[in-house]
Write a structure and sequence with these properties.
The protein has about 325 residues and is of the alpha/beta class. About 40% of the residues lie in helices and about 15% in strands. It contains eleven helices and 13 strands.
Length: about 325
C-alpha cells in the first residue's frame, strides 16, 4: 500500500468496481475524482461522501477535456461489456473512448495509467469485445505514457452486481432444463469483486507494477458445467442440464440476431456469449501474487457472500 497521497481518476467510477475503489482510496486519504455519465444517478452518493464527480462521456472527447489535470494516477475502468444489437458500440466505447482517455492522460503527463482490460484478450478465438480490449492494450504500448499497468480480470461476481455473472445466473433460473453451450468443459476461475479491488489498490504507487500485465482470477478453477452446478445447488435448484453442440448454437445465435434486428429486441444468444463460455480463462496470477500480495478467495468461499441467491427458487 502506498503511503504517498495520490490524486486519482477513476473512469467508470460509478459502477460496482469503481465505487468500491473510490471509497477504498478515500479511506486511505487519497484525493479521488470519478468520471460518470451525466445520466448516471449512481454517482450521487459518492458526491455526497465528498468524492469529486466529473460528468462526461469518453466517446465525446469535448466532454472530457482536461479530465486528467491535477491527476497522477488514472484507473481506466469505463467499458461496455455487452451490446447484443450493436457491436459497433463496443468499438466506439471500449476502443475509441479509451483512446480519448489516453490522450487526456498524455496531455496531463499522468505518472501512472492502470487499464482494466479482460481475460478474453488471451482467447485463441477473439470476439468483438476482446478485440476492442486488445486494441486498447496495443494503443497503450504505443502511447507516450511513462508507466502503464494492465489488469485482466476473469469472470467477476459479487452480491447484486457484475453484468456477465448476473446474466449467467438469470440463464440458470430461466429454464426448467438448463441449456449449456458446447460440452461445458471450458475452464473458468471466477473472481470476487473485492479481490479485484484489493489487487487494484495494491497497484497504486507500486513501481513493481510498471509495465506489467496481471491476471486477476479466483483461486478455484471450475468447468462451466461445474460452475453451473455449484450455482444451482446454492440457489436450491435441482435441474438437469442439456449440452448443445457449438455449431447448432452458432446457427441459433444467427437466428436470434436476425430476429432481434427485425423486432428490435435483444437476442437471447450471441456470438460473444458462445465465444466466452467455450474458451478457458484461467491465466496464471503468480506475478500478481509476488508483486501485489494478491490472494484471491475460492469460488466456494465467495459464493457464500451472495446472500440474495441463497435458496433463491424464483425465476425471473
Amino acid at each position: 500500500m502506498s503511503t504517498e497521497i495520490h490524486s486519482i481518476l477513476l473512469t467508470g467510477g460509478a459502477g460496482f468496481m469503481g465505487k468500491s475503489l473510490a471509497r477504498a482510496f478515500m479511506s486511505q486519504g487519497h484525493r479521488v475524482r470519478i468520471l460518470a455519465l451525466a445520466s448516471d444517478i449512481n454517482a450521487k452518493d459518492l458526491e455526497e461522501e465528498g468524492i469529486e464527480v466529473r460528468r462526461g462521456d469518453i466517446t465525446h472527447s469535448e466532454t472530457i477535456e482536461r479530465l486528467c489535470d491535477g491527476i497522477d494516477t488514472v484507473y481506466h475502468l469505463a467499458a461496455l461489456i455487452l451490446s447484443p444489437q450493436n457491436q459497433n458500440l463496443l468499438w466506439k466505447v471500449n476502443l475509441e473512448g479509451s483512446l480519448n482517455v489516453i490522450r487526456e492522460a498524455e496531455n496531463a503527463s499522468v505518472r501512472h495509467f492502470v487499464y482494466i482490460s479482460s481475460a478474453s484478450v488471451a482467447y485463441p478465438r477473439s470476439n468483438t469485445y476482446s478485440k476492442s480490449k486488445q486494441g486498447v492494450e496495443l494503443a497503450l504500448k504505443k502511447s507516450q505514457l511513462k508507466n502503464v499497468t494492465v489488469v485482466r480480470p476473469t469472470l467477476a461476481y459479487c452480491e447484486g452486481g457484475a453484468q456477465e455473472f448476473q446474466a449467467f445466473v438469470k440463464h440458470l433460473q430461466r429454464f426448467s432444463i438448463v441449456p449449456m453451450i458446447g460440452n461445458g468443459k471450458a475452464l473458468k476461475a471466477p473472481v470476487y469483486v473485492d479481490d479485484i479491488s484489493d489487487g487494484l489498490t495494491a497497484i497504486l504507487g507500486n513501481p513493481k507494477s510498471y509495465g506489467k500485465t496481471y491476471n486477476f482470477r479466483g483461486s478455484q478453477v471450475l468447468s462451466m458445467a461445474e460452475l453451473a452446478r455449484e450455482l444451482l445447488n446454492f440457489m436450491g435448484h435441482n435441474k438437469a442440464m442439456i449440452f448443445i453442440p457449438v455449431t447448432l448454437c452458432r446457427l441459433l445465435a444467427l437466428s436470434a440476431y436476425l430476429y432481434g434486428k427485425i423486432f428490435k429486441k435483444n437476442p437471447l444468444l450471441t456470438w460473444q456469449t458462445i465465444s466466452g463460455v467455450t474458451q478457458d480463462a484461467i491465466g496464471d496470477y503468480q506475478e500478481a501474487q509476488d508483486d501485489l500480495n494478491y490472494r484471491p478467495r475460492s469460488f466456494e468461499v465467495g459464493l457464500k457472500n451472495l446472500h440474495s441467491l441463497k435458496n433463491c427458487l424464483q425465476t425471473p
